[in-house]
Amino acid sequence: MITVLAPAKVNLTLRILGKRVDGYHDIESLVQKVNIYDRITLVATSDGEISLECDDPDLPVNSSNLAVRAAELLRESVGMRRLGTRIKLEKRIPHSAGLGGGSSDAAAVLMGLDRIWNLSLNRERLLEIGESLGSDVPLFLCPSPSLIRGRGEIVEPSSVRINAVYVVVYPDISVSTQWAYSNFRLTKTSGKYTISELSKGEGGELNPESWRGFLVNDLEVCVIEHYPQVMYCKEVLTRQGARTSLMSGSGSAVFGLFSDRDSALSAAQEITEREGFRAIVALPIFS
Question: Which domain holds residue 207?
């Protein structure tokens, strides 16, 4: 038996560069993992059965759950049908929120089963399997922060550091990633989207004065048009002292950057008590 932690992510930047011939979009995004974790317990079996128990009744426990699919695909890739596992998923990352919970769960299952099934696969093999599961899965198999490109499968380490305390606010609405990207295509303004300065800079730690001008998410405007709760969360975070705020990924979660833990804790408590939103204080993971 092994227990692994699957961290959430936030997109500090998300630029959409264009539509690909395969139907996906080319993106560039600086992604930071944060210490909000799903907890996954894996028990190896030799009966060939793969099962999932989850404490969130809204999530499926069959092959449509990426955690189960990751186990199935890993077993298929090594050709050992007798391998089985019982998976227990304790869900703490809000789903359909732009925080990467499902992809992180899949990556954690791959890494955990690689150990308890004694496969000893190298990172390149795990990345290959992860990519076939979903665009965000390779990100969670790599260090943080990372710069991701293509449809998300190209992952490079980044030296950019934003050493902030994060308050992640979930407005209790789900936003489909597919819907967000399709809606962006229909509503984006004319003009060429260009690769950000991330690929040209020297990196290093950004001071708090530069945080506001650095953060950008091309999907934010079109999501806010249909889900005004997202904008309201941004406004609430700003009123509570965040230096800046941004929607993560395709939403609906919004995060605010704070310079110190005390002010972040105070803001999260105020948002939870006054607004009724789920607000979580988190720290960046640098690894």
Answer: 160-282
Nearest to 101 by CA among 249, 258, 228, 282: 249
- Mean pLDDT over 240-249 rounds to 97
H or E stretch at 43: strand 25-45
What are the C-alpha distances in Å from 153 to residues 26, 114, 156, 201, 221? 10, 21, 10, 22, 25
168: alpha, beta or left? (left if phi > 0; alpha if psi -120 to 50):
beta
One-letter amino acid identity for 21?
V
- What is the DSSP-derived secondary structure letter of residue 141? G
Q: Does residue 36 sit within a domain?
A: yes
Catalytic residue among 9, 33, 91, 234: 9
In the set 105, 114, 136, 218, the catalytic residue is 136
Our answer to whether residue 136 is catalytic in this structure is: yes
Any bridge partners for residue 14, and if so which? Answer: 29, 217
CATH (domain of 11):
3.30.230.10
Domain match, 41 and 109 both: yes
Final residue of a domain: which of 118, 142, 157? 157
If you ran DSSP here, which 8-state letter would residue 4 be given?
E
Task: Give CA 76 to chain center in angstroms.
Answer: 26
Taking a C-beta distance cutoff of 8 angstroms, is the pair 166, 34 a contact? yes
Residue 34 pairs in a beta bridge with: 8, 284
Active site residue 105: no
Residue range 131-177, pLDDT digits in tens: 999 989 999 999 999 999 998 889 999 999 999 999 999 999 999 98
- Distance, CA of 68 to CA of 63 (rounded, Å): 5
Residue 51 bridge partners (DSSP)? 86
Taking the model in full, what pTM does it have? 0.93
* Owner of token pair 């990207």: 181
